[in-house]
């Protein structure tokens, strides 16, 4: 005696959020049944393992049938096969596109190619995220990347509209797309302490300030693709002008004295600041001037860590110290008589400041 | 040229990729009606083509309009080879032929392919212009309304109930034609789908003609079935109840009745007393008799073989034999009189299961008849006489059973078949009843005075329980008692019926689902031997099922069954029997006794202990059930009542065994010998089995209720959450050496586990009730058992479910209190409807209005408020549009898009998410918390799905899962295109699954039906009434 066939179909598609999560997490049917039993569903409700198995199978089948639609969420709203109330649709999509921070941290900045996909086994073993779930997440990244790659207009908005995601999730995906496109190096050991959320924040800063789309509302009418995905080339070129801050000796000294005057007595780390000023300033300005090279763009974060964060940390600056220092460092440049690149300076330092604040932790 | 059909192909979306090279599709559409075909242009390289075609016009007979579906085929253009078909849409245009139903079909339809399933969607507009046909001898019956609902539809009143209509059409099954060997499976499936669509169209038209002949304008309780007889052909048959319906306008009613509070029908369930009251006391004795089956002598027809027709009457406790087919003398004068009108009719049958108050007077009990036939090739499809004769025979049987019960009519009537190879079991069942004489009277009713003349001093809520037969000359031995409510008339101790519980009936506690399940092995055989073997087994099965039902009823301390449905299914080596019903405690009936166990050998001490142990378990179970179902009948002093108090010993025993009926005994003696009639002896293996099955039935978990009827007796405050579902389970019996007991256990577990599964899946909706649990069993292959269930889970308000709201005729609509207060207009019409009809020779006049159970969609629990609002917008647009469309068509020019619709489309699109109309589906005739404002027509769809890549589709489960989902989707799409937002009285008539896992193949056929409706939330009442009136004025103006 064996159950040959067992289906249950509701006019309104019945979906259990718990089972959906297990499915998304890549559990097999049997593992899911076990997990549910451990979760105590059976205790709450007097049922046998058979019932649980049958229910899990039904749900898994439903999810598998839905998966095709979830690949283009807009279809989910006007398909006819499943009657799913709108708020449930939102839940389905949001959960399907949710990802594990540990996983995304591994692929962040990598090329979303077949090669990377082959490495998913290793990532799965390393992160403890099931291979199935890794594949789903990776395919989501790739799918969104492919779609927005060809679209004009603001990146976050594009993602939100095409994939019907929440604002938060859309921003995270924008970060992922942005990192993948610019191939930022994030995997180095020195960068391991930085979380995905830190990077996502930085990506947001870069997208909002350093891309073509960031300059002005009117600009998006230009027939430029990927304005939010690529950095503003013109701006990068202009950054070269900042070099004067470290090459012109007078300017450098003047800058130093202005900053030191402002800082004196306000922090315990004053001596270290004074001693390191030239080094730190060189570091930051060098980062700026090299950004025209794609290779150096990739190393942007590692440079920030090596050239600024690490020296500060070894001198035991507090986060407040860093903030204080950078604020005065930025503002003092305005007082320099011979320094003419105030706008570029602000655009550059604004992002650098907030990125460093975010990244300056253990 | 009585009609012009117009169709426009607007656009497609989500089309499949047909050209691998470009990942695109060059789609075009063929629109076919009858023999005329139009084509759209090719829309190159697009998965979302916009054709925006011209209006394709078909000039056709209305006969064809009724028979033929509009066939839309989407194809991929291929320059070098043949065009590939993407899929098809069949649109039944019947709803457009009725002025009161839909006026346009417009919407997205899933493009369906029998091999690949749904492949994208297509947007289509369809309209019909009908010209008046004055030809009296026409063959069409346009305008006759069809309803699957087995009660008078809401917002209509029955001016007259004409009675039974039936028709059947036969044809060769394309699957078995020689050509099938050379054509593709797709072509064969499509030929079949098309043929069945044609046949059901034809059937409906023919039934419509019969209705017109009878002077009616509608068919209620329309039940259409397919018999896939294999080699011998394909039969499509239908039964229904012809009525003259009138849509009531709330405006007029309000004038005639200023005091709505008096409206609830006080004359409900009158006894037919009016002056001519029979001098005979109604009485009854309880019957405990075995099924005496009136085996019709086997008869040989020239072409087919038919064997004995074991039949049963279930009344009260016993299965009474059809004692004397012409049981005349027990009729009272009155009955004779009322009967004459009905008897002029061939079959006084009604497919309705619930009735306007006052229609049903007495209920006798369940009558059923079965017949085993050998199928033979249908030689001449135009003369389906053999099948007609078969059914005729069965119906005669039923009629005579009803007579034997002293009843002149059969209500809740249904027919079905079970086919295995060449053997076919035809079954029919219903409830013998007496209908109110005033409905039987010739001519119209003098409605003005009914209340006074028919005022019945007896409480209205027990009348139907009173026995219809004559106490002194009972058709079977029965135990009677005076009615526990009115104390005047006799009632049986147990009552079985196939109808829904009358709204006004008094019930103690709550009801519950009661099922009897049975398997019987049989030897494999061929032809006549096989048929004889089956027909010999049938009476035993009926008897066993009946015994089980009775025992389970007693175990739950209940005394009546409603909505009883017994299905016997035949397979090659076994018979399956499944009886489902809703058990209740009718206050009017005496309390049921317990169950007493007795040992066979009283001397044995061990044995006695064993007996005592079982007895204790049973008593405990009864006590527990009483508490569970809140059955606390008022303690009555029986002394005062004239009925003999049964001896304790007798009262409390399981009845099993021989009848004391005085009947001339049948050829088959079913008795277990002359044992004491009421003791369950545990040495008896059957009895052990019985006890086992009694005690293994688990009650539903806390928060759940279940019933097989429309609603649960004892629950009155439904909230608006509903979830309709279909579940199918197939078991493979690997063990070939199974015994009857083993099989029974497996089958019982299968059903119980299914129920447990439902409870688990729906656990988040508690408190809720699974209503209309409709189980269908089949034996698709030798070792397979298939059970399919369609039911609806409805939520209710827990706080108030203890008490029936006092002082009102509560109908199942729930929240009736507010109904009556808020909408007195419609209700008041009950007592004041004045619409004299020209007299009909044999019409059942009927003037009561269906109480207005207000219904409307609640999205609260399932969707957002937005869409509700949107829905309303659409509705308004729709109603307004109706008027305008009419004007347009009468001027004979057409606009591409009726304004209303286009507006509504725009408004829904602007929402982005949720642009698809939510369509609710329910097997019930109403939606709680909502009000049906319009019936848009019948939905009757037949689909075939086949696969040659079963494993890739997730095995049989995956295959069937997606097919059922697709069927739901197609039903919803059709309803939405008609402008509706719900399907009521939905049912899945057939689900035939054939599989061959070795070949990686499977095929499945599904037939579904229901009524497409527009419903609105009760809270939106004001607006809709207004809209309705506006609509009325517009219609009037045009």
Automatic annotation (TrEMBL), chain A:
GO biological process, any: platelet aggregation
Cited InterPro entries: FIBP
MF-aspect GO terms: fibroblast growth factor binding
GO cellular component: nucleus
Stated name of the protein: Fibroblast growth factor (acidic) intracellular binding protein a
Automatic annotation (TrEMBL), chain B:
GO MF, one example: calcium-dependent phospholipid binding
Any one GO biological process: intracellular protein transmembrane transport
SUPFAM superfamilies the UniProt entry points to: C2 domain (Calcium/lipid-binding domain, CaLB), YbjQ-like
Principal localisation: membrane
Feature: compositional bias, Basic and acidic residues: 797-810
Subcellular location: Cell membrane; Cell projection, Ruffle; Cytoplasm, Cell cortex; Cytoplasmic vesicle membrane
Region (Disordered): 256-286, 797-818
Boundaries of every C2 domain copy: 1-109
Alphabetical keyword list: Calcium, Cell membrane, Cell projection, Cytoplasm, Cytoplasmic vesicle, Lipid-binding, Membrane, Metal-binding, Protein transport, Transport
UniProt-listed CDD domains: C2_KIAA0528-like (cd08688)
SMART domains assigned to the protein according to its UniProt record, in alphabetical order: C2
GO cellular component, one term: cell cortex
Protein name: C2 domain-containing protein 5
Organism: Nothobranchius furzeri (Turquoise killifish)
